[in-house]
Specification:
By secondary structure, the protein is α/β, with parallel strands linked by helices. Helices cover 25% and strands 33% of the residues. The strands form two sheets. Strands 1-4-3-2 form a four-stranded mixed beta sheet. Strands 5-8-7-6 form a four-stranded mixed beta sheet, with no helix packed on it. Strand 7 and strand 8 form a beta hairpin.
Length: 120
C-alpha cells in the first residue's frame, strides 16, 4: 500500500489553486470544478462537497494536521509570503533552531496549517 494524496478543504478552490501555484509551484493536473488535484499529491476539495460527504461541519484552524514543505532558501520564501496579495497569518515566525535548521508556520487562506523548514 502507498499514500496517494493528501486532501485539504477550501472555501474557494480558485483562490487555493492560485495560492499553492504562486507560493509552492504546485500545478493543477486534474480540475473537476469542486475538486482539484495538484502536483506533489495535494488535493483541494470544495468545503460544501466535503461537508456533504462526511456529514460533519468543517473546522478550520484546528491544528490537527499540517502540510510540510522544505525550502533551501527560506529567506526568499519569507519575502514571497510577505509580498503575497493575500495577507499571511503566521503561527510561528521564522525561527532558527540551535542545530541550524530554520522553520516557519502559517495558515493558507482557508486556515490549513503549513510548515516550511530548511532541509536537514
Amino acid at each position: 500500500m502507498r499514500l496517494k494524496n493528501v486532501l485539504i478543504v477550501t472555501e474557494d478552490i480558485e483562490r487555493a489553486k492560485k495560492f499553492y501555484k504562486d507560493l509552492f509551484g504546485l500545478n493543477v493536473i486534474l480540475d473537476q470544478t469542486e475538486n482539484a488535484v495538484l502536483t506533489e499529491g495535494l488535493v483541494l476539495q470544495d468545503k460544501k462537497i466535503w461537508e456533504a460527504f462526511i456529514e460533519k461541519e468543517i473546522v478550520f484552524q484546528n491544528h490537527a494536521s499540517e502540510l510540510y514543505f522544505e525550502e533551501i532558501d527560506i529567506e526568499s520564501f519569507i519575502e514571497k509570503l510577505e509580498t503575497y496579495d493575500v495577507p499571511v497569518h503566521y503561527v510561528t515566525p521564522l525561527t532558527e533552531y540551535p542545530w541550524g535548521q530554520k522553520m516557519v508556520r502559517f495558515y493558507d487562506p482557508d486556515g490549513n496549517l503549513i510548515e516550511v523548514r530548511t532541509p536537514m
